[in-house]
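Entry: Exoribonuclease Xrn1 D2/D3 domain-containing protein
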Amino acid sequence: MLIMSQASSKTTSVDVHNGVRVKTLARAAWHQLFLPADDQPEARHSENWWDHKTNKPPDLALIDESGPPLSPSAAFCGFIEANRCLTLVRCADVDTNALTCIGKFAGESEYKLAEYYIMGEGDNALLQDLNNASALLASSNKTIAAYGTQVEALCSWRGLPELQDGAAKANHGLEVGSELLSEQNVYRYYDVAVRQDLCKTTIVGLGWLVIFQVVVGLLLLPMLVCAGCPRFLGFVVAGAAELRSLAATSKLAAAGTWSRLRRAQSLPFIVHGPGVRQSHQASCVQEAEAADERERLQTTITQVLQEQQAQLKWYDLQQLAKQVELEAHVVQQIVGSVMARCADYIREDLGMNLVAEPQGSPACLPCYSCKMPKGWIFSDLAVGALKDYREKFPGLFEALRSRRGTNTRQVKDLEQRAIFPDRADKDYCSRQLVKYCNSCEWKKLKLAPTQYMAMTTQSVSQVAWSVDEALKHPGPAIKIVDDAPGYLHDFHMGYRFFGVEDPDLENCAENVPEGDWALDHGPSRADGTNLGI
């Protein structure tokens, strides 16, 4: 803000006038957005663009648009000032402005709730409903306390403890709801979000953002340009020197200059030819060999998957029920979702989740189940998992025998006393059951579309072994060196600028003593280079 104030003090009278126009437009836009039509001030044609008595901006239609056009400096200053004005005006009377915004965009009930929590005025419809429910529940508790014992004595009904427990839980829920909806609990969130974050932290953050943008744009960016210019000029000078060197070397090459080079390795002769074509051919050979290796590895993996599919046996629902010696309706329930109330009255899914048929496309558990046109089928893995499940927790399957219906939304949840009727430590047994379900592989795997198939542990091991074997025996690698420093020189880059004729390549090979090799510096054709072999 200090920087903008100094900049504004140095502008001309036209810039100051334009900056005032921008600030006026910004404040009027805020007025049109957040104030209702009946609160807009009357026409004011004076030069005082802000009414300090009503603390409101003028109407947008009453702003004088005459005057010279906006200059860039005034527009920039006005933009920054407009953002600051919008935030400051919003936070000048934050409670009233917040209620104004809520009344503009929300309904009447939301406005009354906001007025209750922000200003402490009016009634809270939510708390009134909770109080009415508490009164009805208190009346019900009195009735239960007065007549519950007599009803148990006269009738065979023995549900008084459960009824009292349910009433106590409902009363506790109402108390928690009243505490959550209390004025002290809700107002502290409003204070943190609006008063502190919006009106303090946001303004400070915008100020720092403007300062850093000015520092980066006006100070660091010019310094970066100044620091990069000498390095760029150095690249230009070095490039020009290299071009002059290439031109001089090309002139010597046109005269047929020979040079003898010493090499550490034994190279008996030099072969000159269309090296670019040879390089492309070598690259193609290398890519073809790599493609063959990938194809062989892919074939091996496919064979592993086919062997896995051949080893697995699949059964429909009726056959699966015969394999595990259970009724079909019990198997149909356990392969899906079975909701139960276990320890601490927590709702858990005890089903194997091998099948899932939501409103969209069905999903299966790979390697355990699959969806076919005639229905679901299940593999040997599902048979073994279901047998193990039944052996460990037979009480669950006994409870499912007396449970009818397959729609989980219409069937009531299983109770732990129905799963473990003869056990005194029902909570402990329920926890062990949930722990077993969550530790099984069929519970850890994710459901997938019916066309997907997963790999067993044995198949994964075979694939890993195949990949390791392929990496142990890599194919022949071809190393292609282009423009090796000290051995080859690429002269086809610039010799045609000097009008040099194409040389004769038939006599460019010469036998030399062992350890030496000769290289003709004469230019080769535009589509070839010299290769040292």
